[in-house]
Amino acid sequence: MRTVSVIGAGASGMMAAISAASSGASVTLLEHKDRAGKKILSTGNGRCNFTNIQQEPICYHSENPLFPWGIVEKFNARDAISFFLQLGVYSKNRNGYIYPNSDQASAVLDALRMELRRLNVNLCTGVHCREILPGKKGFRIRTDKETYRADRVILCAGSKAAPSSGSDGSGYDLAKTLGHRIIPVLPALVQLRCDGSFFKQIAGVRANGTVSVFADGECLARDTGEIQLTNYGISGIPVFQVSRYVSRALYEKKEVEAVLDFMPDFTDKQMLAFLKARAAARPDKTGEYFLIGLFHKKLSDLWIRLSGIRRDSRAGDLSDTELVSLCSQIKNFRVTVTGTNSFDQAQVCCGGIDTSEVNPETLESLYIPGLYFAGEILDVDGMCGGYNLQWAWASGRIAGECAAVEK
Question: Which pTM was predicted?
Fold first, then answer.
């Protein structure tokens, strides 16, 4: 019987262990935290959005853009839903976002743990892997407690995002020691820090809008949804979706700007016409209350001030210049991005093991026969909405199956 050791008991590691054991291998799963799958508990705000029905290649990012989709196609969202149903996790669909019917991330984690036990996977927690040593007869894995031997090794040690859950970046050092290149690892699906003392004034406001990010004047990405304004900058799902591009641009020392459009359904021309009609309809309304009922008062107060409009000005007396300036604040609110929040706040990372050095069919190292990779340790990151867990399930499934198969 082939022996397989899996390093890292996160989502991809547990799936890899289950997959290898289901394919007939004797599996040992090594985890340096005190229990497996801690990060799963925080996904989907504790409800675990474990995949998404809407799947396209653009949902996944990599320096090698075709790489992740080739794996996801082998084990897609419907496969993931079916897999968890077999484990007892009945799911529900919220506009394509798939959750366990119980709305508990613990249900997904408990189902995976039970399957590990059913398949007699040897789960060893509190074990820190120091070195992977390939040899003529398989591998030796040197840890802080003992040395493990295996015919095959699957490295699923995660990224550097949310290190308190176990993703401390130690897997990158193991991969580098074995000759693999690491594409710079940066926070992704993370909040953006911006310049501007006014952010303290509007902290806590949530508003629908579009976020566009520019580096040295070039638009990198944009997304629409609920923007959250904080005392240090901007957050919310649309901000998370574009943050990977910001991380990379800042790493490359580029000037980064975010442009916020708080009325994305209107063109600039339509917005200006709307403001003029609003002023004509209630000419006696003062500047202080001109936008009340349209936007949050904290935002309205900021835009009125930045447009140079006096709070006691009559709406009917507003000049075209003032209305154009106000329109610009609403439709093209520009802020300089100075950084992202740290790995502690990031949901995932961009960067990781260069996928050009990995077999795109099996996830086996092109340098070290018998060494496989899965999950976030690879240079693959998905959009917010269940895509990163789908990548974990798909890559873990393929790596586990391929590692267990006799050659």
Answer: 0.95
